[in-house]
Amino acid sequence: MKPILTVAVALSGAAFAMTAWSKDDPAAGAQLYTTNCMACHGADRAGMPGAFPALTDISKRLDAAQIKDKIRKGGGLMPPFSQLSQQEIDDIASFLAK
């Protein structure tokens, strides 16, 4: 009976670790924002009126899926960021939702 319990505990721990690993990380998103977004949208996410929109209240204008789609595909003056992984896009979106 003990070996079965040990395997069950090990498997549940592995499943938990995988879930924790793929969770959105706003801190990582902040770093990615600095690298990929700050040049246009600014350190304070205020943007530049007429050129680059403010991102301070982006979650009031777009839902999470729309934000992620915009990052991935771009639009208007914004280039696509197809080089970013889905996890990186999720992290940026979670940072912007703060």
Rounded to an integer in angstroms, the radius of gyration calculated over CA atoms is 18 Å
Flag low-confidence runs: 14-20
Can you give the helix content as a percent range? 55-70%
The string of secondary-structure elements, in order, is HHHHHH
Helix run count:
6
Shape: globular
Q: In summary, what is this structure?
A:
61% of the residues lie in helices and 0% in strands.
Characterization of this structure:
It is a single chain. 61% of the residues lie in helices and 0% in strands. It is built from six helices and no strands. It has helices spanning 2-21, 26-36, 38-41, 58-61, 64-73, 86-96. Helix 2 (26-36) packs across helix 6 (86-96).
Lay out the secondary structure.
Elements: H1 2-21, H2 26-36, H3 38-41, H4 58-61, H5 64-73, H6 86-96
Helix pairs in contact: 2-6, 5-6
Question: What keyword list fits this structure?
Answer:
98 residues, mainly alpha, 6 helices, globular
